[in-house]
Each structure stands twice: as C-alpha cells, then as structure tokens.
Amino acid sequence: MARQAAGLPGQPRKETADEVVASDAEQGGHSGELLALQDIDSEIDAVVHRRRHLPERARVDADVSRIDSMRSDAATLRSELGGLREKQAAFEKELASSEQRRSAIEKRMFSAQTTSTRDLQAMQAEAGSLQAKASDLEDEILALLEATDAAAGRLGELDSSIATAGEALLVAAKELDEAEKTIDGQLSRLRASRVGAKAALPEPLLARYERLRSRLGGVAVSRVVGRRCSGCHLTLSAVELEQVRHAAAGDVYACEQCSRMLVVDRSGE
Q1: Cα gap 186→50, rounded to integer Å
Q2: Which residues of the chain have pLDDT under 50?
Q3: Using alpha carbons only, how large is the chain's radius of gyration in Å?
Q4: 158 touches 67 (CB < 8 A)
Q5: What is the pLDDT of residue 183?
C-alpha cells in the first residue's frame, strides 16, 4: 500500500509526531508483532507496578513506621526518666545534708554545751526550719518516686510493644520476600518473552516503538476500540475509522491525536 500523506484533513497517517518512520516495507505486515510486544510490555509495567505496591510491602512499611514511632517515644521517655532520677538524687542529697545539719544542732542543744538562752532560741529556730525543709523535700522525693515508677512502667510497656512489633515485622518481611520472589519469577518469564517479541520486528520499527514508549507513558501501540484510539481515548473521524479498518493487513498508522501507532487487531478474525 502506498504511504498516505501526513496531516491531510480526515486522513489517518503513518508518520509519527517525531517524523521518524519506518518504510512501508519495514512496517507492513508487523501489526500483530507490534501488538504482541506492546501487550507484553504493558503486562511487565503492570507487574512492576504491582511489585512496588504489594500489600505485604505496605504492611512492612507500616510496621517499620510504628516501630520507629515507638522507639522515638521510648527515647523521649528514657530522657524524662533520667531527668526524674537526677532530680530525685539531688533532693535526696539535699535532704541528707539538711538532716545532718539538724542532727548536729539538736546534739548541741541537748549537750548543754551552751547556756545562752538567745543561742538556744536561735538553734531551736534553725532546727525547726530544717525540719520543715526536710518535710518538704520528703514530699518532693515521694512525688518524684511516683512519677519515676509511672514513667518506668510506661517505658516497660513500650519496650514490650517494640519487641512484639519487631516479631511482626520479621513475619511481614518474610511474606514480602516470598511475594517478591513470585512476582520476580513472573517478570523473568515476561522479559524472556519480550526478547522473542523484539526479534520479530525490524530494527527501524523497533526503534520507533521504543522511542514512542519512552515518550508516551509506556504505550506506543494503540488498538482501535469501537471508534476510539485506546491510547488517547479520542474518537476517530468517520473517514479515519473507515480507512484504518479497511487498511491492508499489517499496515501501521499513527493516531492523529497522540501519535501512537494505531492498529486494528484482527487476531479474532
């Protein structure tokens, strides 16, 4: 069949938008092979997409995210717990010093080392002040002990949850590995089929196909489905549709709208 001029109104064309085309001899008779290669590539793309979005992968990602969050919470809690213990240790040291001072004062008071009423009154006042301070410190220490116990309990629960989540992650990772192996086997078979499908096409037509695939989202060949191009889903004109449907078997036209190679699939005829 003679090549039809590109861009004539109402005419389907064999030229691509990049104006690199195979000769009629090269492209004629290869529509079936083009469709076969496109179908394989579309299936490969779908399988690769499925591999990237496996539910097993989502579970692994969710487990990892949950563990990271719990570990962050645990680190914050450990820091808080450390601060509580440091504060408790400081209060206990201050309490011990206060008690030691009060004990020394009371010893002097009751040892009759001084007979001055003024001195005794001063010592009694200081001892009373130290006793009140000790009572306040003991209350602070008790509150810190309660806060420390609560924080330690929460940390223990977090550590237990992290361990449980870690076990779940190991199971999910194993399931993901098995799912990936199954899909990788499928991909290996499809890629082997692709080698054979490529070999059935002349190099110029194959190069055109690969260029279009890289430029048009992986789809270089479109079927005519009803009155539409399956690539861009736009409706062909009545004249275009008639000419494409009655083209010689194997002729490859380019869609006027998207530049994909347009083929009428006659495999069922």
Answers
A1: 12
A2: 1-27, 268-269
A3: 42
A4: no
A5: 97
pTM assigned to the model: 0.66
Q: What is the pLDDT of residue 248?
A: 64
Sheet holding 261-263, edge to edge: 228-229, 221-225, 261-263, 253-254
Q: Which residue from 257, 240, 224, 169 is spatially nearest to 35, judged by alpha carbons?
A: 224
What does the DSSP assignment read for the chain?
-PPPPTT-TT--BS--TT-----HHHHTT-HHHHHHHHHHHHHHHHHHHHHHT-HHHHHHHHHHHHHHHHHHHHHHHHHHHHHHHHHHHHHHHHHHHHHHHHHHHHHHHHTTS---HHHHHHHHHHHHHHHHHHHHHHHHHHHHHHHHHHHHHHHHHHHHHHHHHHHHHHHHHHHHHHHHHHHHHHHHHHHHHHHHHHHTS-HHHHHHHHHHHHHTTT--EEEEETTEETTT-PBPPHHHHHHHHTSPTT--EE-TTT-PEEE---TT-
Tokens of 156: 């223990």
What is the total residue count of the chain? 269
Q: CA-CA distance, 250 to 267, in Å (whole number)?
A: 11
Q: Which of 235, 266, 225 is nearest to 29 (CA)?
A: 266
CA–CA gap between residue 165 and residue 168 (Å, rounded)? 5
Q: Which amino acid is residue 268, in one-letter code?
A: G
Tens-place pLDDT, residues 4-39? 333 444 444 444 334 333 333 344 568 888 999 999
Distance, in Å, from the CA atom of 77 to the CA atom of 162, rounded to the nearest integer, reads 14
